[in-house]
Amino acid sequence: MAGISSVNSSAAESARRRAEAARVAAEQQTAAKEKPKAKPVEKVETVSAFEGPRKTGAEKLTGENAPLAAKGPLDSAPADPKARAGWWKQLSPTEQSQVVSSDPKKLGSMDGLPASVRDTANRTQLKNEIAQLSAEKSPSKDQQRQLENARAVQTQLDRVAKEAGSAQLLVYDSTFVNGEGRAAIVAGNLDTAKHVSVSVPGLNSDVRGYMDNITSDALKLHKASGTQQGEVATVAWMGYDAPGFQNVASDNAAENGAKLLAADVAGIRAARDGNQPHLTVIGHSYGSTTASIAADKNGLQADDLVLIGSPGAGSAKSVKDYDGALANGHVWSGSASRDVVSWLNGSNLPGDPLGQDPSENKFGANRFTAEAKDRGDKSNMGDHSKYYKEGSESLANLADIVTGNYGGVDRAQQRYGEHDWWKGNRVIDPEAKRAVE
After folding, report:
1. Helices 253-272 and 81-90, packing angle to 10 deg
2. Which Gene3D superfamilies did the record assign (predicted)?
């Protein structure tokens, strides 16, 4: 009996343990179903197992959240040149000083700002460069060119201030195109002048070697214009990479220069906003080709366009290729009959390298008298550089155009084509036989 009791007892205990195990398993399953899903753990970037979460800036020093990087006043400048003058005015004097000192080069290049503001910024950049480059013990070739450009600009600024009473540095970049340089100096006040002219030079022009020449032209024109027709500002624009004689027919410098010229003129317009000046662009020699292309292809915002000593008008075949007022009586041409460069155009050279002669009747410009009093008997290069000569009929006519005194301009008969059975086709210049007083 004892054996039977022991077996029964063991069986009962086994059954009890199975029932208990089943109950625990059932409870675990129920708990697993009711347990909420755990939230995903946010990954924290760490540098190492010892450093913990990455911290930057002020967090490393203070344990506080780092603020967003502060932007300077210049970072808020609008991209639209027409809006920049308003942006500048709303800056406090302290912010304006900060902008000038922090990045004068960038500020000085911003079209749409008043000329006085750009002048301050560009003069600051100029002063800094002269000081830094002069201190170089072993300057590179590029640095030497840069310093020469800077000194040339400073010399002409001082000269203009002395002779015209006021000077502004509208454009300045001493490193432009492999050290050729880029600058625009104003005789007068560009922010207030009633009449504004922009003189564009020709071949072999750069800041180092030609800034004095183009500045002389602007000063002579400023003096000749006077103040009877209102305040005048004349701009000596050495703003593009002019070609040399060896590559003048193949170089695309006129195309590239035309874009820069149009942009700088548009910047002047934007800065003046509701107080627009009467604006004249004067292109001499290859500069006339550049200016003409700017008017034909790049929307040059000029009231009058003057082409003097022109070897060709580039892409424009007649004044009708221009827009607005330029196509309706506001394109002018001055060509001395003995100026050999004024004959290097499509009517006289094969291949039409630089375009149509703007002094020919088929182009349609208003031609004015531009003969030199001391002209020779034959074509020469000397007359090519006399259009701004003091006392010349050319300079007097330029001054009348710039000041809007169109009735005072002495008109000249246009050149015209003629066919001769013995000599073939040729161009006749009536000015060649006119007596010059």
Report:
1. 40
2. alpha/beta hydrolase
- Listed residue (410, 403, 373, 394) closest to 222, CA to CA: 403
Q: How does strand 167-173 pair with strand 182-187?
A: antiparallel
Among 105, 82, 233, which Cα is nearest to 160's? 233
| Cα–Cα distance measured from residue 71 to residue 64, given in angstroms and rounded to the nearest whole number | 20
Cβ atoms of 309 and 344 within 8 Å: the answer is no
Phi and psi for 17 in degrees, rounded to 5? -65, -35
CA atoms within 13 A on the CB side of 334: 29
Of 259, 253, 263, nearest to 285 by C-alpha is 253
Query: Sheet containing 195-200: which strands, arranged edge to edge?
Result: 167-173, 182-187, 232-238, 195-200, 278-284, 304-308, 331-334, 366-367
* Domains along the sequence of the chain with CATH: 80-433 (3.40.50.1820)
CB-CB contact of 397 with 227 (8 Å): no
End-to-end CA distance of the chain: 160
Predicted TM-score of the model (pTM): 0.82
* 240: nearest Cα among 198, 197, 280, 278: 198
> How far is the C-alpha of 354 from the C-alpha of 312, rounded, in Å?
5
Q: What is the pLDDT of residues 258-307, one digit of tens each?
A: 999 999 999 999 999 889 999 999 999 999 999 999 999 999 999 999 99
Contact 46, 54 (CB under 8 A): yes
The owner of tokens 């003995």 is 338
* Strands (DSSP E) found in 144-231: 167-173, 182-187, 195-200
Radius of gyration of the chain (CA): 38
Q: How many CB atoms lie within 10 A of CB 245?
A: 9
Residues in Cβ contact with 282 at an 8 Å cutoff, skipping those fewer than 6 apart: 197, 198, 199, 200, 221, 291, 306, 308, 398, 402
DSSP symbol at 94: H
DSSP sequence for 290-349: HHHHHHHHS----SEEEEES-S--TT-SSGGGS-GGGGTT-EEEE--TTBGGGG-STTTS
Q: How far apart (Å, rounded) are the C-alpha atoms in residues 309 and 307?
A: 7
Whether the Cβ atoms of residue 345 and residue 365 lie closer than 8 Å to each other:
no
* H-assigned helices in 137-206: 141-164, 176-179
Q: CA neighbours within 13 Å on the CB side: how many for 376?
A: 10
Tens of pLDDT, residues 50-75 = 333 333 333 333 344 545 445 667 88
Please count the CA atoms within 13 angstroms of the CA of 56 that sit on its side-chain side: 6
